[in-house]
Write a structure and sequence with these properties.
Helix content is 22%, strand content 33%. It has helices spanning 4-27, 226-258, and strands at 37-43, 46-50, 55-57, 60-61, 66-69, 72-79, 86-88, 95-98, 103-106, 112-115, 121-122, 128-129, 135-137, 148-151, 156-160, 168-172, 175-177, 185-188, 191-193, 202-204, 213-216, 218-220. It has a three-stranded antiparallel sheet, with no helix packed on it. Strands 14-15-16 form a three-stranded antiparallel sheet, with no helix packed on it. Strands 1-6 form a two-stranded antiparallel sheet. The radius of gyration is 27 Å and the shape is elongated.
């Protein structure tokens, strides 16, 4: 059997995965705090007919050997945590991390999740929550009838109750960073979960230990570049088509063999 049939099939499967990743990037081009991904591939095992350096005669060795590759597979899908551009909203509960770091939220299961999406709201009790109702950690409750809310670049949250009253500090927003953010597990809803690959969470005040400062009244947009994704999509499509041509050529070769008398 011609090995190129299966080899080209692995190439088509790899490019399908590549296209799935590109499609997800494009679909989330308007998602706050979304981080684009890229598919990474590696070659499969080789069928060795002659080892490189094998003895071929008196004082002679094979300089290259004879090895035939058997295809490709998806090795990883890498998250790119470069910062997205800023979108000014002037909403006092819209926060952007200007640099590295994640907000912490508490999920209904009691687990701590991490997000770059800083579009926070107030629940009926005045707690600061994300759009899915997950409470920001450490928990901060905004008193009723406040006339102003300010979040300092270092994460200190202050409110003004009366027009002539001095600002009151009601809480502190801390950020969490990881040794390997790309090792976080994406679970949807703009949330990430800690894994053994990400390392332990490192919590600190904004601006300390490599984390960024907070910017109030603006959000971080997706870091997807539509032009780059379109180029990647065309490249993946052409690679997929070329692999399909290899299968057609291999089939024609097998047909020629089958027609031998």
């Amino acid at each position: 059997m011609i090995k190129s049939l299966n080899t080209a099939a692995t190439g088509m499967a790899a490019q399908q995965t590549n296209m799935d990743v590109i499609a997800n990037n494009i679909a989330n081009s308007s998602t706050n705090g979304f981080k684009k991904s890229r598919a990474e591939f590696e070659d499969l095992m080789y069928q060795t007919q002659k080892e490189p350096g094998a003895v071929t005669g008196m004082n002679a060795v094979s300089p290259n050997g004879v090895q035939t590759g058997l295809g490709v597979k998806t090795a990883a899908i890498q998250k790119d945590f470069d910062n997205g551009s800023s979108v000014v909203t002037k909403n006092p509960l819209d926060l952007q991390v200007e640099g590295a770091g994640f907000f912490q939220v508490l999920t209904p299961d009691g687990d701590v999740a991490y997000t770059r999406d800083g579009s926070f709201k107030k629940d009926p009790n005045g707690r600061i929550v994300d759009k899915n109702g997950n409470a920001l950690q450490p928990e901060i409750t905004v008193p009723p009838n406040v006339s102003g809310l300010e979040v300092a670049p270092n994460g200190e949250v202050r409110v003004i109750v009366g027009m002539n009253d001095a600002p009151q500090t009601i809480g502190q927003i801390d950020l969490t960073n990881f040794v390997n953010p790309a090792g976080l597990k994406a679970v949807g809803k703009n949330l990430f979960m800690q894994t053994p690959a990400s390392g332990q969470p490192l919590q600190s005040r904004p601006g300390l230990n490599g984390t960024g400062y907070l910017a109030q009244g603006q959000l971080e947009s997706s870091n997807v570049n539509i032009v780059d994704e379109m180029v990647n999509m065309i490249t993946a499509q052409r690679a997929y088509e070329t692999n399909s041509k290899v299968i057609q050529a291999s089939d024609q070769m097998l047909q020629s063999v089958n027609n031998l008398r």
